[in-house]
Amino acid sequence: MQHHLLRFSLLLLLISSCQPSAEELFDAGVAALEKQEYNQAIEYFDRVIETEANFPSAYNARGVAFFELAQWDKAIDSFSESIELDSSNYKPYFNRGNAFMEKEAYKEALYDYNRANGLDFNQPDIYYNRGLALLGLEMYDDALVDFDMALQANPEDTRVLFNKAKAQLGNNDPLNAITSLNEVVRLDKRNAAAYYLLGVTEMSALGNKEAGCTQLKMALSLGYTQAKEWIDDFCQE
């Protein structure tokens, strides 16, 4: 009987040793995330959390998977769990801010970006995304400060330049907005949205019909169909 018990206990030891660790499950989840297998990734991260509840990176990564599936509230809940376990990491704050942005909850997003920036002020994406939140809140001066901070890292980032132009227009500064938009189309000659905004600004703010129509026609040629209405109304000979 003792011999059988010994063999049984060895069998249990072998079975338990075959169970993947929380780290192994986490790595498998990250691999699934990188392959864009988001539901599979969530299953792995759920198993991590079942194995080891105190694993903030698993909650954060699961939030990213929910985010990619456009499940904003579930993403926010996961990021919040990660923050509760470790409030010293900027990433879940930043990620939760992004989820709030998708819900157009700009004040909540701004709070999270402020926290993320306080934890790591060397991340250009935080400045850019916080600038977008400030733009959504119509806080144009503050948005411009953040966009300029983001441009210090990459002066030729057309996303930042385009939204800087929108903030300048919100600030009733069409001349500088046109300068920013001209820089966008210099860097990206297929940026239809920039040509459209440039054309509308030239015409509506400066009364420059010829330049405005040229830009609007370029926008339309690149597939920006909203330009057609302006062209039909103002650019016909």
UniProtKB/TrEMBL annotation:
UniProt entry keywords in alphabetical sequence: Repeat, Signal, TPR repeat
Superkingdom of this protein's organism: Bacteria
InterPro entries in the cross-refs: TPR-like_helical_dom_sf, TPR_rpt, Ycf3
Listed SUPFAM superfamilies: TPR-like
Signal peptide per UniProt: 1-22
Each TPR repeat, start to end: 22-55, 56-89, 90-123, 124-157
PANTHER family cross-referenced by the UniProt entry: TETRATRICOPEPTIDE REPEAT PROTEIN 6, UDP-N-ACETYLGLUCOSAMINE--PEPTIDE N-ACETYLGLUCOSAMINYLTRANSFERASE SPINDLY-RELATED
Name of the protein: Tetratricopeptide repeat-containing protein
Lineage: Bacteria, Pseudomonadati, Bacteroidota, Cytophagia, Cytophagales
